Amino acid sequence: DCVIKVKRGSETLNPTNNAENLDAYEYKKIKPGETLTFTATPKASSTYEIEKWTYNETGVTPSQDLGTGAGNERTLQIDKNMDINVILKKKDVSLTVEFEKAGHNYLLGAKNISASPEAILTDTSGLTENKYIYKVKSGTKVKLTVTKKENAKIPYGIREWREKKSNDTFEQITGSEGKYEREIIVTKNTDLQIALINQYTFKFKKLTDDTDGGQMKITDTNNAELVAVGCPSNFEQTVQTDETQVKFEVTGLGADKLVVSYKKEGTEDRSFFNNSTGMWKTEGTVSNLTPGDVFEVVVAKVKRIQLSVRNFNNTTYTGNFKLTIKKESNGGS
Are the C-beta atoms of residues 158 and 194 closer than 8 Å to each other? Predict the structure, then answer.
């Protein structure tokens, strides 16, 4: 993990055991009184950095601090057999994780799973719930877990995880699509982004238990099917899409079942009521969707009532009249 060089003036000395990745290198034929310059350079891929330099007479302890020099270089006059020690330590690095959008209602947790037992990491950002910063030693394996806030509306799904590259752009991490967990070995300062995608919920509600047919199909603006909800058992489904409007079509209700309401975020949406026919439409476009919105169709089995207005002598009344039908609070009409 570290490249060692020794120079006598401008001359570079070669160790007698010249090989890579050894724990110790030996230099001979050093004359007493000569001054040597030692340079230690951790490799770019190394998870270590230099903590300090020490020296001692070979076979003699304790070691002394070799404080002369700057950075990764030290100079020492050699008067006897000496051991020069480069003490390495794990680098302190940061792992920064940021959600792509605010208002997501997710929480992020992190664990050091290199430790035994595993240790929970503390967010040091002191910022909002959108950005988390964890301080770890280089080489630490971290497990990140995204959880939903309890009883909170979740407007976005997880599209993918991304990592910042040297050109300051985020690139997709292969295989991260839709994942709520991510494990990473942190060897350097690392920035991750959790990319989000709009999320909507579509429901098919039966107002009466004897409604045993029908479904609502949801398509995008290019008529590609996103989901279908309805009988016999798939009454609620979450869809993730970049679209902000979708099309719907209700089919399969039969002759004795009708749409009796549409609701968006729990409020009846009367834009889908046909005033000319007095019936709810069975198809249309839901516009201006906001991430997290819930759109619901309500269907019920209905009875058909035939009304006629007649004279007292039971002949058909042919004059003008007005018929008013009121919707009662118990849901009848």
Answer: yes
